[in-house]
Amino acid sequence: MISAIDSIPTRSVRAKGNLDLIWTQFNDLNFFIEDEYKENFYLNLFRKLYPTIRLEKVFGLGGKKYVKQSARDKVNSKKDIHIVDLDFDHLLNSIEVLPNLFYLERYSIENYLIEHDAIAEFIKEEKTTIKDSEINLKFNLESSLRDLHDVVQKLSACCFIIHKFSLGIEYFKIEINRDFNLTATPYGVKNRFITDYYEEVKAGLKLKRPRMSFERQVSLAQRHFKKTNTLVNVPGKYLMNLIKFIVVRNFELRSLHSDNFNYRVGKNCSLKSLSFLKSKIDEFLN
Fold it and tell me: How many CA atoms lie within 13 A of 214 on its CB side?
């Protein structure tokens, strides 16, 4: 039998901005996010942040600009909450201020999934007899982040350059076995794919800003990606992909898709690092 919720027709990405009118009977609050393919993921997180409210649907609008536009359109509504990734907006002074628009304080939602206890719980789900002592022996989150910093710093700097100068180049999609040597000490980059990508970004910058030095811009950008702020400014997808690889390798787990890993770790997260978001939303609602 099809439920009342399942019977509601789907809409185009832009039309989703008005779906809250249909879902009023199911939601006490309407949450609007960027990624239309992360609705279930965010639904789980928001239910943990607000366990006492009625929440059956989260609305992914297909991009930050659509979330911002929806926030402008619904600026007088106390029921409609709009949440966007921080990306590099704080570094480029491009944060838009609206009462119903809330920025994460890290690059993306994936950056908030990086909790030792949540990852340890995922490992226990895969190996139900494992002891905490063995987990701690084989996986240390803080040291892993320190080690990973050196292989993602320049890559993150290139993402920043692409964004800052609107180069129109897609961010590099890492394939860990192809691109990184995570058995060496320290970790390193292998093959030519990442170095070829750097050349692509260099050429894109030269085309857009002929007099600008790529090497100089990389050096300036890398200042934003120090070991002390890895969790804030480095794209969370890079970090979670690399952490997944380390966990699967160290504990000899079955391979799984990154989205599956993120979803399961997210279900285990305490979300203490998102308490700021709940406080800001509560302040807005009251």
Answer: 18
Domain boundary assignment for the chain? 14-108+274-285, 114-268
SS3 181: strand
**Angle at CA of residue 178, ends 172 and 181, nearest 5°:** 105
Could you write out the DSSP letters of every residue in 100-146?
A: TEEE-SSSSGGGG---HHHHHHHHHHHSTT--HHHHHHH--HHHHHH
- With CA atoms as reference, report the closest residue to 125 among 249, 261, 11: 261
pLDDT at residue 25, rounded to an integer: 75
Is the predicted pLDDT of residue 59 greater than 70, yes or no?
yes
Q: 214: closest CA among 173, 263, 274, 162?
A: 162
Given CA atoms 11, 14, 16, 19 in this order, what sign does their dihedral have?
negative
> What percent of the chain clears pLDDT 70, i.e. is strictly above it?
92
